[in-house]
Specification:
9 helices, 19% strand
Amino acid sequence: MRVLVVEADELLADMIAAGLRRAAIAVDIVHDGRAAPTALRLGAYDVLVLDRDLPGLPGDEICRQMAEQGLPTRVLMLTASRTGRAHVEDPGPGADDHLTKPFVHEELLARVLALGRRARPALPQIIERAGVTVDTARRLAVRDGRPLALSRTEFGVLEVLLRAQGAVVSGDELIEEVWEEHTSYRINAVRVALGKLRAKLGDPPVIETVPDAGYRLGDGAGTGEGAARTGNEAGTGGASEAGVGPEAGVGQGLV
């Protein structure tokens, strides 16, 4: 899931983003309302967490523009209690839900997840291929019954490859689904994450590299050049970590 947080209070925005990232959600942040429409057009976000009282462009106007453009992003409007009872009961034009400040993070997370489920077609909770199983709701991953200790990014990459069910997924598609907008050295970040993921999955190799196309999750036979690990993708640690960013643990069995 991808979430855009548009919040004028930088500290609050960072706190919201940190909590969502702990739940393995990719988050980008914007502090000025005028930058939000461009970010929404380019980012393909599932959910927008939107401060109603923004500098530059208020939240209600952002919602109006989204409706005009037919953007499918679901909106959770954050309203200040000082705005009065009418605003507390009304999420605002174009908003799907609202939350009054101050709020507890668990409530915000629950609403974001609910909106995210509405933003996309229902997907199976448990996905399996080649002996690899992912439980997306419990954030668990196993191979042949062996629990896998995966970072948030590694879990996201594995989920995308599993959902493709053997189809090729390009590096750009992985970036779009798993990484955040501000990530630098993006292609290198994909290679590093894939190298770590392959090492944790073990043998026989199941993630295949398709030259000039991307990656796919094979059948586990481990045959052919496509299943071989490349030098760049097998590496871990070092300066390449700058492209991955800090990884928060997600769920039981994950770090």
